Automatic annotation (TrEMBL):
Species whose genome carries this gene: Nocardioides jishulii
Residues in Activator of Hsp90 ATPase homologue 1/2-like C-terminal domain copies: 22-160
Protein name per UniProt: SRPBCC domain-containing protein
Domain of life according to the entry: Bacteria
Gene3D superfamilies: 3.30.530.20
UniProt similarity note: Belongs to the AHA1 family.
Amino acid sequence: MPVTDVSHDLGARTITIVAEFAAPPKRIWEVYADPRQLERVWGPPTYPATFVDHDLTPGGRMNYYMTGPEGDRYYGYWEVQEVDEPHSFTLIDGFALDEKFTKNPDLPESANVFSFVEHDGGTRATYVGTYASAEALQKVLDMGVVEGSTTAINQIDDLVA
């Protein structure tokens, strides 16, 4: 399994996930840069994602929804802040209310850094999400963000093999 470590720190309001892939950083970057590839790994296997908008440039926005086993949909967005291809990008990740991707003020946003560095001929990816408060972090932990993110990231190996 690519995910090698998952930790959270309520004091620092962060979740950190580390994963290692057998492919070079450029190949991992391509997964995030291509919405059709990203759909195959964003979200747990039983909640596949569909990206309606995908703009991985500074100031860009990505709107997506996940479809559950019963056909139920969960909407989300990324607001891309910085891009250093193929090494890293930063984004705001949030939940949306509906198919218009209106921000959901009742669920927390997080500021994220996704970074990819060469490691042992492959890639070490580090995903760090920072929340506005310990309560916001606890809320997403209670919602299963660690399990969901881990199962999602673990799908990348099959895609890049």
